[in-house]
Design brief:
single chain; 73 residues; mainly alpha; elongated
């Protein structure tokens, strides 16, 4: 890598950050995770211990599918 390549990469990174594309995506992901945790907490408050473990148990097949998709490339 040469110095001009580094400058080009820096300009591209600065432009994408100024557009807010990465920031918006990160904000959407964080809001989704926050809402999922709040929902899970409300289910524990409503139904007690079953509200804690049933959503985790339901996510097992979902995570297995995600792992299969990741492993297939």
């Amino acid at each position: 890598m040469t110095a001009p390549d580094t400058q080009t990469m820096t300009d591209t990174t600065a432009q994408s950050v100024s557009d807010g594309g990465e920031g918006r995506l990160a904000a959407k992901i964080l809001i989704t995770v926050l809402l999922a945790v709040i929902g899970w907490g409300l289910s524990v408050a409503t139904w007690g211990i079953p509200g804690l473990y049933i959503p985790a148990l339901a996510m097992v097949p979902v995570m297995m599918g995600i792992l299969l998709l990741i492993s297939r490339g």
